[in-house]
Structures are given as C-alpha cells and as structure tokens.
Write a structure and sequence with these properties.
Number of helices: 10
Bound molecules: thiamine diphosphate, magnesium ion
Strand order of the largest sheet: 1-2-3-7-6
Number of strands: 7
CATH topology: Rossmann fold
Distance between the termini: 47 Å
Structural class: alpha/beta
Number of domains: 1
Shape: globular
CATH class: Alpha Beta
Strand content: 5-15%
CATH superfamily: Thiamin diphosphate (ThDP)-binding fold, Pyr/PP domains
CATH architecture: 3-Layer(aba) Sandwich
Largest sheet: 5 strands, parallel
C-alpha cells in the first residue's frame, strides 16, 4: 500500500462528479423509459452508490477491463459506455453493441466491458481468467471486478481469490456493500459484517472504505488498488460501505426495511455531498454545477432520440451466435 495518501486532483474530482450525476440521471431516465414501455428491461437502480461505482473510473485506461453488475450503470459509464450504448442495449436494438442480445447484461468488447453473467458470482473466475491473460501478454492493464456483498457468498469467490494471489493476477475486486441482498438486509444473514477481511486469508491486500459515499475517499482507495495491480504486485480488494437507496428492482415494495431508515440514509446521498465539497474547495461554482446538470440532460435526451429511431433485430437472426455441441 502507498505510504502517502493519494489526493484527487480538481480535474479528476470534477470528472467523477459529472459521471455520478450522469449515472443518477441516466438511471432515472431508464425507469421512465421502462414505465412508458419504451424499453423491456426493468431497473436495478444504484441510487446512492454512485461514488462506489464511479470511483475507479478516474484511473482506468481504455485497454483495462471491467466486469460490472446488474446495478452497474455507474461502473459502465465509468468505463466509457455512452448513455446511447446503454439505452440501445436496454431497448434490445439491432444497433446496440450486442446486436440486441445483452439486455440488462451489458457488455462491449471495444470498450473493455466484459459480459455480466446472469448467474451471480460466476464472474469472479472470469475476472481472474481475463487478468491472467493480460498478465501472460505482458500488458500493464488491469481487470476491475465489481460485485455486491450477496454475490460474495458464491463459492467461486474463494477459489478466485486464492488463484488471483497465487498467480499475481492484476485484478481489483470491488465490493459495494449496500446493506441489502435482494429482499433482505445483509445483516440478517450473517454475523460477519465485513467482506474485505476475507482477502486476508488469501494474503491479498485489502481496504475498507467505511464512508463509501465519499467520492474523494473512494477515489483515493481505488487509485492505490489500481496502482498496486498495474505494477505487477497482484490483486487488491476494496470494499465500499454504502446504502441502496432504491428498491432492489422496479416494483419491489421494499417491505423488508423501514421507511425511516431509508429517509435517514438519503441525508448521506453521495451526489449533494460531492457538490458541497467541490463548492467548499472552490473547485466549482453553482453555475458550473448547473451547467453539468444541463449537459447530462442533453446527453440523455439525445440518447432517447437515438433509441426511438433504432431498429429492432431481424427475427431471422435469432439463431445467430448460438453455439451447439
Ligand atoms: C446464482 C444466482 N442466484 C440468485 C440470483 C438472483 N439475484 C439477482 S441480484 C441478487 C442480489 C444480489 O445482491 P448483492 O450481490 O448484494 O448486489 P445488490 O443487488 O445489492 O447490488 C440476487 C439474489 C442470481 N442472479 N444468480
Ligand atoms: Mg447488496
């Protein structure tokens, strides 16, 4: 671990803030598109987790790989997917990166977004495999594997941790502990509140960002982890403690949690917190913040227009890309 803590530059902080804002607005627009039946894919909003999802993006290179989650718009925007890319996938359009086949499970080979597997937790091995291939090619790139605390219960987690250390694989494991696993609070299923400590058992360096809604703290931790993996020292584990402000998915009535708890958690929304800090440091003015919001709205409006005019795949292509033994 670096002895001196890294501090985000003004440019990095503004970039991260913009991506967080774009994520929030994109996800809200997605919910609206679903309600209007303009896309068939419902939402798993990452509202409140934008700092954890975007934090690494300031230090990612185009040739790095990311494996995101079902709640990962922040992670995909962070890796360079455009809002248009995302809406075309959610809309199942022929002109999307996957030709209308990905749906929620976004991927984009040109932008280094590896496919999200529908079976939760199966991506740990995929991340290690991709990292091993980067290492074997002598490339200075890394894989960032995002997941939640629920996915960390998958058996593959342990084998992947062990192998990543054994072969010094350049992977940064990023767990967003958002307090929920589908329809139950995580604390109801375990006495072990922290996930990152498990890395210790495999001799992997790790860090818990206790305030995972602090964009500056997340960015700093991610920089250290990415530098470590990029320099050939092997994997690193980062856990960001955050809170899922949104329901698990569209239509989840959230009967398993207290409205008062959620109301309290909104006070810790990472976006206004980042705004306040940017203003305090005089790294942005109120007008800059408003302009960034307007820019996000324009990007989203253009993406919606692109979605409306994009064609659906030809039904005759349904058997394309299917492998039969
Ligand atoms: C093997 C498997 N089991 C169950 C599911 C259904 N499922 C989808 S999301 C989810 C909860 C995941 O929780 P967590 O990893 O904490 O991520 P979060 O939803 O909180 O972001 C579950 C159980 C699945 N996709 N795959
Ligand atoms: Mg969770």
């Amino acid at each position: 671990m670096a002895s001196k803590k890294y501090e985000l530059t003004q440019k990095e902080a503004l970039d991260l803030y913009f991506k967080m804002l774009l994520t929030r607005k994109t996800e809200n627009a997605h919910e609206e598109l679903f309600q209007k039946q303009m896309v068939p894919v419902y939402t798993h909003l990452g509202t409140g987790q934008e700092a954890a999802g975007c934090g690494a993006s300031a230090f990612l290179e185009p040739e790095d790989y990311v494996i995101g989650t079902h709640r990962g718009v922040a992670e995909y925007i962070g890796k360079g997917l455009s809002v248009e890319n995302i809406f075309l996938e959610y809309g199942g359009r022929a002109t999307s990166g996957s030709g209308g086949r990905a749906g929620l499970h976004l991927h984009s080979r040109p932008q280094g977004v590896l496919p999200l597997a529908g079976s939760l937790g199966s991506d740990f091995s995929l991340a290690v495999g991709a990292g091993l291939s980067l290492r074997n090619q002598g490339r200075k790139n890394v894989v960032v594997d995002y997941f939640g605390e629920g996915a960390a219960e998958a058996p593959d987690f342990h084998g992947a941790m062990n192998m990543a250390v054994l072969y010094r694989v350049p992977v940064v494991f990023c767990c967003a502990t958002n307090q929920f696993v589908e329809y139950h609070p995580y604390r109801d299923s375990t006495c072990a509140a922290d996930i990152a400590v498990r890395a210790e058992a495999y001799c992997m360096p790790w860090k818990i960002v206790r305030d995972g809604n602090d964009m500056f703290a997340v960015g700093q931790a991610m920089k250290e982890a990415l530098d470590h993996a990029r320099s050939g020292k092997g994997p690193y584990f980062i856990e960001c403690k955050t809170y899922r402000l949104a329901p698990h998915h569209t239509g989840d009535p959230c009967v398993y949690r207290d409205a008062a708890e959620v109301k309290k958690a909104w006070k810790n929304d990472p976006i206004p917190r980042a705004e306040k800090e940017l203003l305090k440091r005089k790294w942005a003015t109120e007008t800059d913040i408003e302009d960034m919001g307007d820019r996000c709205e324009r990007i989203i409006a253009e993406a919606v227009e692109a979605l409306k005019s994009a064609p659906l795949p030809d039904p005759a292509s349904i058997m394309d890309h299917i492998h039969a033994g």
